[in-house]
Design goal:
Strand content: under 5%
Largest sheet: 2 strands, antiparallel
Number of strands: 4
Radius of gyration: 29 Å
Strand order of the largest sheet: 1-4
Shape: globular
Distance between the termini: 15 Å
Helix content: 55-70%
Length: 616
């Protein structure tokens, strides 16, 4: 009987050892997930997604004004409001992803909803009773009825909701597949954000050349049907890569954690802070799931928040007890809130930039429509195709920036990225101002030629000035995007707490949302208060407008915004982080498991040996 017990005990020890080894193998397998092999699936999804969205949005102003017969300002405001809604929904999607759903499922469901929106608007372009009668002269046109517009609005709403699941999660999900600590980024010769924008530029370029041509020459049914098919392909490509992805388990709502810190700080507002910050509450085990890349260290800013981490005498009685996080927060969680507060002024600087540029695309398309767009006697470029020059500049610029500028700047700065995110954004602000000033000068030239040939009162006439006068401003906007857009996204991703990166990416989208709404307000006010006779932004005849004045107004707004940004950047403090490399995490985990396994096995064998000795 005793021998059976000994054998049974020995077998249990062996089984425990095997379980531990199996656990280690599973963890190793988990760490082997991700890496560069996942990028074809993620980027295939993003290429098709961007192809679909660019093909859908790039020429939509033409669809609203030419097919639905909407006035220019109303159509432009509709698209800007829709763009604003599309940029607000990512905040909801980010909270869902970070709280419970995870990034993979949020992206998947978002693309499905987006697909429904594309299907809806494609069907509306095919059925004649869902749009008003054609109006080739663009004079006294019958506008779309309220029921026809509702179909448009529902389609745009579905695509906005779908964007809410896609946009905040794709970049963080791509980054999840790699080591994104400073050491990990420095060890790679390529920048994820630069190449992400390059791939997106390639997709947009394809859409601007293929889809826009189809829309202008083969009709809107095929023109919107192609993006719909592309979005379906993106869903399939993304789901196929599921077995390879490294997924990060969501650890609860980040907003709840931020609220807990504020509540705890308010509750302890009368407590005195210790002179030694090391006496503030820290719990590595509690923060382990939200500090995989390293713990945030204590900083001296916003010290009143540190009161949330004060350990009272009552809380110190049982140090092993699980803390009530609404009364006591760790230093890491306090620093998470501080990081978000520090980021907000820099983040807000992007709002006025979007406000000033939100309607430029719509207005420039109307300018291009009035200019000579012939490349030969029989072929002319579509107005929406002009964005190609901006995209080509951005794509070329990203390669030149990565291959030449970064190594050159690194020699002087010692920064692995060449220059900091804040410096990169500042350069983008300056270039954007120059691009807007050039836009105003080109508009002055366009109107002077129209006046010379007595075409100011003919909105359908082709003014004998080449559309390629618009190329410099498009190229300048492309260069500005290399610095501003990439730098802004990289800044938000790098400086946000690692457990809130979807939410930080959503902040990037929220910038666009608020900027678009403010842009609508700006355009509406300019349209309302600049008179009927010489309105800056007329509904039908741009030749009699003062678009150049609007561009100069926008340039002035951007100069004020640049001054604000420089002040914020000057006083900005980067988050303090104690980094842990991927190898250290994996090695520590394996060593811990091996030590536990060896101790269990050793204890089991010693116990078995003692029992045998007793029998003898």
């Amino acid at each position: 009987m005793e021998i059976e017990k000994k054998i049974k005990g020995s077998m249990e020890v062996i089984e425990k050892e095997e379980d531990k080894e199996l656990h280690i193998k599973k963890r190793k397998k988990c760490y082997r997930r991700g890496g560069i092999r996942t990028l074809p699936f993620i980027l295939a999804n993003e290429v098709c997604d961007r192809f679909a969205s660019a093909g859908f949005h790039s020429n939509l102003i033409s669809y609203l004004t030419q097919e639905l017969n909407m006035p220019l300002v109303a159509a432009s405001n509709t698209l800007t409001n829709f763009g604003g809604t599309s940029s607000f929904t990512p905040l909801i999607g980010a909270l869902i992803a970070d709280s419970f759903a995870g990034r993979f499922w949020t992206i998947t469901v978002g693309t499905l909803i987006y697909e429904l929106g594309l299907v809806s608007i494609t069907v509306s372009t095919i059925l004649p009773n869902l749009r008003p009668p054609p109006c080739p002269t663009q004079v006294n046109c019958q506008e779309a009825t309220s029921s026809q517009l509702w179909i448009l609005y529902i389609s745009l709403l579905l695509t906005s909701i779908g964007s809410g699941g896609i946009r905040p999660c794709v970049v963080p999900f791509s980054a999840d597949q790699f080591n994104m600590t400073k050491n990990g980024v420095a060890s790679r010769k390529w920048n994820l954000f630069n190449w992400y924008f390059f791939i997106m530029g390639f997709a947009s370029l394809s859409a601007l050349t293929i889809v826009v041509y189809v829309q202008d020459n083969m009709g809107w049914g095929w023109g919107l049907g192609i993006p719909t098919i592309a979005m379906l392909i993106s869903i399939i490509a993304f789901v196929l890569g599921a077995p390879l992805y490294k997924t990060v388990k969501p650890e609860g709502s980040p907003l709840v954690r931020l609220a807990q810190v504020i509540v705890a700080a308010v509750r302890k507002r009368n407590e005195a802070l210790p002179e030694d910050p090391n006496l503030l509450y820290q719990n590595m085990e509690l923060d382990a799931a939200i500090s995989l890349e390293g713990r945030l260290l204590h900083s001296d800013q916003y010290k009143w928040l540190d009161k949330a981490a004060i350990v009272t005498e009552e809380e110190a009685k049982d140090p092993n007890a699980t803390p009530n996080l609404w009364k006591l927060a760790t230093v890491h969680r306090v620093e998470e809130l501080k990081s978000i507060i520090r980021m907000l002024p820099i983040w807000a600087s992007g709002i006025l930039l979007i406000t000033s540029s939100s309607h430029l695309h719509s207005f420039v398309i109307q300018q291009a429509r009035s200019m000579d767009r012939h490349l030969s006697h029989s072929f002319q470029i579509s107005p929406a195709n002009m964005s190609i020059f901006s995209v080509l500049t951005m794509m070329t610029g990203v390669i030149l920036y990565e291959r030449f500028f970064v190594p050159f700047a690194r020699r002087f700065t010692g920064n692995p990225s060449g220059i900091t995110c804040l410096q990169r954004m500042g350069v983008g602000f300056v270039i954007n101002i120059l691009a807007t000033v050039i836009s105003a000068l080109v508009e002055i030239k366009r109107k002077s030629v129209a006046a010379k040939y007595h075409l100011l009162d003919d909105p359908k006439a082709t003014i004998p000035i080449s559309v390629f006068w618009l190329v410099p401003q498009y190229c300048m906007h492309g260069v500005a995007e290399i610095f501003m857009s990439v730098g802004h996204l990289e800044f938000l991703f790098d400086q946000s707490p690692e457990s809130m990166r979807s939410s930080a990416t959503a902040l990037y989208c929220i910038t666009t949302a608020i900027g678009n709404y403010m842009g609508t307000l700006l355009v509406s006010l300019v349209h309302k208060y600049t008179g009927k006779e010489r309105n800056w932004l007329p509904d039908r005849n741009l030749n009699r407008g003062r678009l150049d004045y609007y561009y100069f107004l926008v340039s002035g707004i951007q100069v004020i915004n640049l001054i604000y940004y420089v002040i914020c950047a000057w006083f900005y403090t980067y988050k303090p982080l104690e980094e842990i490399s991927e190898k250290e995490k994996e090695g520590d985990l394996e060593r811990a498991n091996e030590n536990i396994s060896s101790v269990n096995l050793k204890d089991g064998r010693e116990e078995e040996k003692k029992e045998f000795t007793k029998d003898v």
